[in-house]
Amino acid sequence: MSWAVYAFLSALFAALTSILAKAGVENVNSNLATAVRTVVVLFMAWGIVFATGRHHELAAMGQRNWLFLTLSGCATGLSWLFYYKALQLEQASKVIPIDKSSVVFGMLLAYLVLGETADAKSLAGGALITAGVFILIL
Questions:
Q1: Cβ–Cβ under 8 Å, residues 138 and 131
Q2: CB atoms < 10 A from the CB of 133, how many?
Q3: What residues contact residue 136 under an 8 Å CB cut-off, 6+ apart?
């Protein structure tokens, strides 16, 4: 499959995640809900690693890999904690668009931190996403 198919599948499952999380966080502490979700993701991810025999590649990972994957995990955890709290406090239809503004933040960080190039098409797309987020939350 191409990268675009994987990206669209990611978007589909992210949408399902939001709807299922909103239903699951009702009458439950948002931090507890995040912890339960994290355990499920943990078992699922390691299950796939072991099922595909990729666990042997752990030894080949360098310090840089460990550092950035650990930092990414911390960022993911914080994102999930804040997201579940927001879902607990507000309608999913209001929280989801703001959460998806991460697309624009991600694009900006890719340009600034990773040195990726910004072309007119990506800048226009980012501006439209930003405008769409503001329209949806006002």
A1: no
A2: 18
A3: 93, 94, 97
Query: How many domains does the chain fold into?
Result: 2
Q: What is the pLDDT along the chain (138 residues), one digit of tens a residue?
A: 899 999 999 989 999 999 999 999 999 999 999 999 999 999 999 999 999 999 999 999 999 999 999 999 999 999 999 999 999 999 998 899 899 899 999 999 999 999 999 999 999 999 999 999 989 888
CA dist 72 → 11, 29, 68, 76 (Å): 19, 24, 6, 6
Tokens 């502490």 found at: 29
Distance CA(43)–CA(54), nearest Å, equals 15
Does one domain contain both 63 and 37? yes
CA atoms within 13 A on the CB side of 124: 3
Say what the pTM is. Answer: 0.84
Matching residue, tokens 């607990």: 88
Helices (H), ranges, the chain: 3-24, 30-51, 63-89, 92-99, 102-112, 120-137
Residue 19 sits in the same domain as residue 80? yes
Same domain, 109 and 76: no
Range of the domain at 17: 3-90
